[in-house]
Amino acid sequence: MDNMPTQELEALRFIRYEAQDAIGYITLNRPEKRNALSAEMVSELKLAFDFAEDDEACKVVVLRAEGEAFCAGADLAYIQELQGFGYTDNLADSTHLMQLFHQIYTLKKVVVAQVQGHALAGGCGLATVCDFAFAVPEARFGYTEVKIGFLPSIVSVFLLRKIGEARTKQLLLTGDAVSAAKALELHLINEVVPAETLAAHVHAFARRLCVENSSQSMELTKEMLARIPEMPLEDSLRYAAQMNAEARGTLDCRRGIAAFLAKEKMNWEN
Predict the structure, then answer these.
(1) Active site residues
(2) pLDDT tens digits for range 47-82
(3) pTM exceeds cut of 0.90
């Protein structure tokens, strides 16, 4: 392990964090419960992503899981507990999950989901808000909330941006789970990878981003892609032009252009 986590990270019960080869691995570590989400697990994920964002040993983040399932959604015991909540408590709990999804979506570093098993309901939401997702053929994806009288409300905001209205309606209104192949067809994930090579494939992909791409450029590109969809056309173009002009004055841009003009291959880890 390239860095030593803080005592706070070492005290986590359901999440592991480690950095290797400039990749920060956040691992869902509750396999006996199919990595189901509880309020405590969401809190631990927030802490881990906070740490990864500031960790100098991490350039790209990989979200992965132990066990057969990637994440089965909300914990059953937690769902039972919610039955006694009033509106104020429900709003606080919903905001807690919303903050996690927003944190991942806007994280300064690229986040890659390594989906080795089923991703359902909130678990599917976790994969949705990552920048990239790679899954095994056996994995199934679904937002099953409507089947229990619930709403896939928070993830809908991100899903509409990611795959559009028609595909979002297909997934959210039916509540049907789909295969990894279908998820790829719907642009929900980026690639289907055999289970035996998934970890190596994701590692190689993350390493390529670390070596070939400027961290600063990826951070600013993520920021632009998050902000532009809500802007009117003229405002978005002005914003894009401003970001372009600002980027030209950065050290990364000067280094990258110098290497390009010298016909040298840039290694962004140096």
Answers:
(1) 145
(2) 999 999 999 999 999 999 999 999 999 887 877 887
(3) yes
